[in-house]
Inverse folding.
């Protein structure tokens, strides 16, 4: 960790289950390498997770996450590293991060073996724009939490009322990982037809952003919205891995094309898609992905042996969905239930 003459002391409120996420607001400056001054936070006895959220200009990530025992728990980044990694993963194992434009989130721990020492830790943010001012929040969650509240917003011909059978399937699949899915609100807005989506990850100015903002404005709940909208190519995505726990943020949404078809049980297939994207929103990576060089990047879990088995893998193309392709392993369940979205 580099030394600095200015230490910014930030008192972070510790939020138990059922409480609203905090407001943004801790402003920090970055140096010539795009790395910020430290933000300090307190981890109490019984804390279950730490979520760091960075907002501002440029491609955003973490330069470091240092716990009270001195251990570093994220891959290191500065302006040059973030620029080279985007738009793929940075780092390996449980310390990897997913750099983002606009709002970046990092969730810790991913593994039960990772320490959660009581005491003061420090985080430094990073951006590809040296000298930029960034907003940094550290959200420490305490106590067990298992409930994910969602809302269903239809921008397509598929109505949000009554409850879709695919939602019932998604609820069943996530329950196997210890997460209870609760639908707070269902609304149908105007049909926008088919919208073009990016081939990799959504940018701040892509066509989904106005829909996310419209959904946020129309809803009467802080629950994570699933937007049902026809996408080209037919797909689905979480706007972040994980998403920040703020209802007014452009990354606070999951988008699903309700017209996606698959052999066999259509409701199960669509329910799997929804559960898969909600898994991303709660911080789960794919079983296998790729880094900026195109090299295969395995997830950090020891119990996900094959990329096409479990909910976060890819099902066999052209074949009906099988039970094993919907499974959530114990290590995935642990990581998912660290999410700041859960109550």
């Amino acid at each position: 960790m580099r030394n600095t003459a200015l230490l910014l002391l930030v008192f972070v409120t510790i939020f138990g289950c059922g409480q609203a996420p905090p407001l943004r607001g801790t402003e920090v400056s970055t140096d010539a390498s795009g790395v910020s001054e430290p933000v300090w936070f307190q981890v109490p006895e019984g804390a279950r997770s730490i979520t760091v959220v960075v907002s501002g200009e440029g491609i955003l990530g973490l330069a470091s996450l240092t716990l009270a025992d001195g251990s570093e728990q994220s891959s290191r980044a500065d302006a040059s590293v973030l620029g080279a990694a985007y738009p793929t993963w940075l780092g390996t194992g449980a310390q990897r991060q997913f750099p983002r434009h606009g709002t970046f989130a990092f969730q810790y721990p991913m593994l039960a073996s990772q320490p959660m020492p009581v005491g003061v830790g420090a985080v430094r943010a990073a951006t590809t724009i040296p000298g930029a001012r960034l907003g940094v929040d550290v959200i420490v969650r305490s106590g067990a939490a298992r409930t994910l509240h969602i809302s269903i917003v239809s921008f397509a011909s598929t109505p949000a009322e009554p409850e879709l059978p695919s939602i019932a399937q998604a609820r069943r699949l996530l329950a196997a990982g210890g997460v209870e899915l609760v639908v707070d609100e269902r609304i149908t807005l105007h049909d926008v037809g088919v919208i073009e989506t990016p081939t990799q990850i959504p940018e701040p100015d892509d066509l989904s952003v106005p829909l996310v903002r419209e959904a946020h404005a129309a809803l009467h709940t802080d629950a994570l919205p699933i937007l049902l909208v026809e996408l080209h190519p037919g797909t689905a995505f979480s706007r972040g891995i994980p998403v920040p726990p703020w209802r007014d943020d452009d990354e606070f949404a999951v988008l699903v094309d309700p017209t996606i078809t698959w052999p066999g049980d259509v409701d199960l297939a669509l329910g799997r898609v929804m559960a898969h994207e909600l898994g991303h929103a709660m911080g789960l990576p794919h079983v296998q992905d790729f880094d900026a060089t195109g090299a295969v990047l395995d997830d950090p879990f020891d119990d996900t042996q094959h990329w096409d088995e479990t909910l976060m893998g890819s099902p066999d193309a052209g074949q009906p969905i099988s039970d094993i392709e919907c499974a959530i392993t114990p290590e995935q369940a642990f990581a998912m239930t660290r999410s700041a979205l859960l109550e």
Remarks:
- Residues 111 and 335 are 6 Å apart (CA to CA).
- The two ends are 34 Å apart (CA to CA).
- Residues 266-281 form the longest helix (16 residues).
